[in-house]
Amino acid sequence: DGGITQSPKYLFRKEGQNVTLSCEQNLNHDAMYWYRQDPGQGLRLIYYSQIVNDFQKGDIAEGYSVSREKKESFPLTVTSAQKNPTAFYLCASSLLPGQGAHEQYFGPGTRLTVT
Amino acid sequence: QKEVEQNSGPLSVPEGAIASLNCTYSDRGSQSFFWYRQYSGKSPELIMSIYSNGDKEDGRFTAQLNKASQYVSLLIRDSQPSDSATYLCAVNIRGGKLIFGQGTELSVKP
């Protein structure tokens, strides 16, 4: 089955600890994205990548870091510098504009709670 | 002005009625428009995409786009309780990036 997987589904951490969220896709998509969703809010873009070894900041990149060493994988690290890390984190992927329909498809999400 | 605006709701309709969800956007250069459905606690699921002016139908769903008015809507015919969810409008404003509205909560009452 083609799709996007995120792990873990739930994650609990103490304040001051870095944590890495996993995102893997086997859709052969070039573009991958990380979003954050807070209760009652829409999605806000953290980082995105359109090619291996390259990525760009989104609207709320402060306190986060990413890597894109493989086309299939785009892990997100929530660092201790992120002031309000508790949220629902969503990974998505798509074809690039120009490759055809570039709808974004989402993984199941990781719900991070920091206390 | 927000780049993508939706009424937050909740929008309540009786079972079998037509639910109408609306979205406006600010960037006239936007080319691609998407509707996602998100059940509580779950991730968004793409239900419709529309790229040109007019209507696009898929089963009980119809997306309508009016670029001159910067307006995109989603109609759900014969609404079912299982349609109760939050509906997110997303607009491709810059390259492959999407800007999302805050979502409209729909409640379909049996």
What does this protein look like?
The complex is a heterodimer of chains A (115) and B (110). Chain A has 115 residues and is mainly β. Chain A is 0% helix and 49% strand. Chain A has no helices and 11 strands. Chain A has strands spanning 4-7, 10-13, 19-25, 31-37, 43-51, 54-57, 64-66, 76-78, 87-94, 105-106, 110-114. In chain A, strand 4 and strand 5 (43-51) form a beta hairpin. Chain B is mainly β. Chain B contains no helices and 11 strands. The chains are: A mainly beta (115), B mainly beta (110). Chains A and B meet through strand 4, strand 5 and strand 10 of A and strand 4, strand 5, strand 9 and strand 10 of B.
Q: Can you give the mean pLDDT of chain B?
A: 93
Percent in strands of chain A: over 45%
- Count interface residues per chain for the largest interface: A-B, 25 and 22 residues
Number of strands of chain A: 11
Largest sheet of chain A: 7 strands, mixed
Portion of residues within helices of chain A: under 10%
Which structural class do you get from the secondary structure elements of chain A?
A: mainly beta
Strand content of chain B: over 45%
Number of continuous helical runs of chain A: 0
Distance between the termini of chain A: 36 Å
Regions of chain B with pLDDT < 50 over 5+ consecutive residues? none
Shape of chain A: globular
Mean pLDDT of chain A: 92
Distance between the termini of chain B: 37 Å
Radius of gyration of chain B: 13 Å
Which H/E pattern describes the elements of chain B? EEEEEEEEEEE
